Structure formats: C-alpha cells, structure tokens
Amino acid sequence: MKTIDVCLSPELMHLYDVQDKAVVVVDILRATSCMITAFAHEVQSIKPVADLNDCKKMKEFGFITSGERNGEKVEDFDKGNSPFEYMGEDIKGKKIAFTTTNGTQAIEKAKHAQELVIGAFINLSAVAEHLKKSKNSILVLCAGWKGRVNLEDTLFAGALIERMTGDVVPDDDSPIAALHLYQKAKGNMVEFLNESSHVKRLSRLNIYKDIEFCLTADQYKVVPVLKDKDLVLL
Amino acid sequence: MKTIDVCLSPELMHLYDVQDKAVVVVDILRATSCMITAFAHEVQSIKPVADLNDCKKMKEFGFITSGERNGEKVEDFDKGNSPFEYMGEDIKGKKIAFTTTNGTQAIEKAKHAQELVIGAFINLSAVAEHLKKSKNSILVLCAGWKGRVNLEDTLFAGALIERMTGDVVPDDDSPIAALHLYQKAKGNMVEFLNESSHVKRLSRLNIYKDIEFCLTADQYKVVPVLKDKDLVLL
Fold first, then answer.
1. Which H or E run contains B232?
2. Using CA atoms, how far apart are residues B154 and A178, in angstroms rounded to an integer?
3. Which residues contact A152 (CB under 8 A, 6 or more apart)?
4. I want to staple A86 with a disulfide (CB 3.0 to 4.6 A). Which of A33, A37, A92, B58 is the partner?
C-alpha cells in the first residue's frame, strides 16, 4: 500500500527523499489557503517566489504582487495574505507572484518532488480524492512558522490521513502524531487552536474571520499543482 | 512565569537560543533511560561521546565503553543500550563513555545551555521538582530518530509539562502538541506506542521488557546534569 508521511517543518526536509513522492505543501494560515481561494476564483497561475524583492520586480512583467512578511502585507504589494482578497473579478485570468514568510519557502524546498500539490482545509477532500488516484506515496510538508512546528498545519496533515484511511498507511511517528492531534481537535478546531502561539500572533492582526474561513473544510474543489515553476490548476 | 518549549528534533536546535535555558535532553528508547539507571546504580560519571571511534578509544583510559548504533550493541563495546545492563555492581564508582545513534548527538547540540539535565520517564518527577526550583526557562530537546520526530520523546515532553502545570507556561505550538499527545496516551502508553515506527523497529530486537521499563515513571530520583564535558549527579 502507498505510504503517507509528514515533514513537520521545512527545516527537516533534507531528511526526506521526495523524488518519487507526491508532496502536499500546506500553510493553513494563510498562504496555501489564499492560493486555493485564488484558483477557485479563476486566477490563471501563481508564481511562488521565495525572495521578497524578486517578487516585487514581477510587477513589471504584468503580475499581481502578493504576500506577507511576519503575517503583515508588504508595502507596495497589490495584495496581502487574506483569502478574502482573492475572491474578486480583479484576479480572473491574471497571473500572481506570491511570497510569504513560510509557505513559498516550503514550496521551494519541495520543488523536486514527483508531484507538488497545494493543500489546505478549504480543498481537503479534493486533495484527498486526487491523491487516492495517484500512484505516488505521499509526504505532507507543513510550512510551520519560521522553521518551527505549528499546530494548524499539523492538524491538516492529520485530517488528510484520516480522509485517506484505507488508501495509505502512516510511514513514521509524525503522521501518527498528526492523526492523534487531529482526532482530538476536530470537534472544534477554532477553540483547539485558540491556545496556539501562531493563532495568538495572528489574532493580534485582527484576522479572526480569516482563521475561521481557513479552518472550514471543503469549500472548494480546486487542486493547484506545480508545473515547471508555476502553480496551475490540475 | 517561566516558559517551557519543546524542540522536537536535534535538527531544529539551530532555531533555539539555549544560553539562558535549562535544556532537558530526552531519548526514552533508550539512551537517557540507560544513563539515569546507571546513576541510580552509583556510576561515578558518564562521558557522552558523539563519535563511535572516539568512544571506543576511551577504554584505554579506564572507561567502560557503552552504546549502540541503529539500536544494536557495538562490537568490542563493554555494554549496549539496555537499562538492565546498568544495574550491576560492575559499574559502581566507574566512569562510562557512552555513544548512541541519537541521544549523545542531542547532548552535543545542547552543550551550550545554561543547564543541561538528563530526563526520561524513569526520573520524571525528580526532573520536574528540580526544574521547579531553577530560575531558568526550559527547553525539552527530543533526541528523535536520525533527525526525525518520534512519539516516545514527544510524550515525555508532554508528561513533564503536565507535571509542571502552574510553574511554567508553554511557549510555542510544540509544547501544546506534546501535552495533548501525552494526555491522549497516558492511560496506556505501551499500547499507544505499539503503532509507533520506532517501537516497531525496536520490537524486532526483542526488547519489549526494555520498552515497558523505560515507560514506567518515577523509578529513580537521580537527576544527571552536564558539568564540563561529563554527566554527573546533581
């Protein structure tokens, strides 16, 4: 049977061989949640850019510039890191250049995967259904917070493992831990995460509405994947 | 209030500043469990040695040579990595040179801590009582398995946090995750860990008795600490 493993931080990626794997990159609050929302609202493509200045320059080439550093919008960028900014007609058919503190760095570290998929709670079932059809074993790469492990990305890994029960087996202790945590949290994830350091950090930015949105499963059916250097719809 | 944080893998230690911290190094299966058992049976000191050949050479200087690689005893070493080897009269008053796959590497990475303490379930309450008296905030460093996160060390972190409730506050998402996992596991840790990859790996070596011993809390009251380059009793 195919296996599923979880890399709890991009700083541990050197321990995983991903050339024959489907890697699911997840940054629930909020990079991958934004990206999925944008594809659900018909953006053409998203270029993940690890460096802030490289991202800024993409405006000259007709890109919408998007992203954050430390959870806050970057000066001169068109858009920040709230999914509600990616629901309008203004992004339809457009290209976005996207940089974030953790999410786009995680994508960079997973770019040699056999297949790179963008996941979040808002497209959880769509990702699970896609991966069930794939022949590749799976690694969930949690973006974390500046290299540290965070709860919300770990919970997503657990949720994906639960949805895929019977199709995959956990390959290490991290997926087992993620599944246990999700099973404990799933009754009320907002409450479970209220004690989380990252959620506390973001709450100071008044994004409670974003958090609730990002934790609501299966709002969209889109599955963004990396093709060459861009994220596109499957 | 003092804080408590958890570094889930030695590969994440560069993210933590430990110069003003008490670091508790834990490698439940089985390095720190062996070390604590040895001190409870009156070993004089233990020199943690990261390199296998360096450890072997210590025999010339009168040391007992101990340790493992990949869970198995090393050829020509006096002792392996089962706590039951550290209960006899033969170690009383002696010096041990100790090398293991994960535990001694973790000690090496934490050597600049304000205070370095050796913890395991078998001395859990003694470690908690000692740390309550210390003014330093705490980082639990889980030795893991070859850089990867494992369940048993994470559960120890959760157990320590539970024992210290009221004296410390969790400082990040890792300690919160560890506490949740421990609360789910504590009713029957042996059963909880039966699905763990590391326990499965070790079970192949027929060490069920070791595992049960290493998961039984509060068998000893000794607290080994690093002084210069050696572990000694507090």
1. strand B230-233
2. 12
3. A28, A29, A193, A196, A198, A199, A214, A215
4. A37
Residue B159 sits at φ, ψ, to 5 deg, of: -65, -40
Length of chain B: 234
Residue carrying the six token digits 């499965």: B200
ipTM of this predicted complex? Answer: 0.95
Helix (H, G, I), strand (E, B) or coil at B19: coil
Domains by residue range for chain B, with CATH: 2-30+101-233 (3.90.1560.10)
> Residue B152 has which token pair?
């048993």
Question: How far is A187 from chain B, CA to nearest CA, in Å?
Answer: 14
Q: Tell me how far CA of residue B53 lies from CA of A39, B67, B77, B95, B97, in angstroms.
A: 56, 12, 11, 17, 11
**What are the pLDDT digits (tens) for A186-221?**
999 998 998 787 777 777 776 889 999 999 999 999
Q: How far is B40 from chain A (nearest CA, A)?
A: 30
Question: Does A218 reach chain B within 8 Å, measured CB to CB?
Answer: no
Quote the tokens at residue A156: 């997503």
| Contact status of A105 with chain B (Cβ, < 8 Å) | no
